[in-house]
């Protein structure tokens, strides 16, 4: 576990030094919100659970949990997911 922490710190400094996007180097999600009506998520690893009130999406070492009402996955590709509806809460769960 400590070795993972050292690797993450190195990757973070590497990204800073070479001015690279951290989401790519660190393999973390990039999330863009349009108010509370739309969420765009890049760097995901697939949908775990989906209904109109909860969407769980797998990310590197965890998941993103979106809670709301009338949630719809409008787009889903290998790189990006777009969710619309009334977004109330966004949580991260890391393993």
Automatic annotation (TrEMBL):
Gene3D superfamilies on file: 2.60.40.2000
Organism: Selenihalanaerobacter shriftii
NCBIfam families: spore_yqfC
Span of the signal peptide: none
Protein's recorded name: Sporulation protein YqfC
InterPro entries per the UniProt record, alphabetical: Spore_YabP/YqfC (IPR022476), Spore_YqfC (IPR022477), YabP_sf (IPR038705)
Pfam families membership: YabP
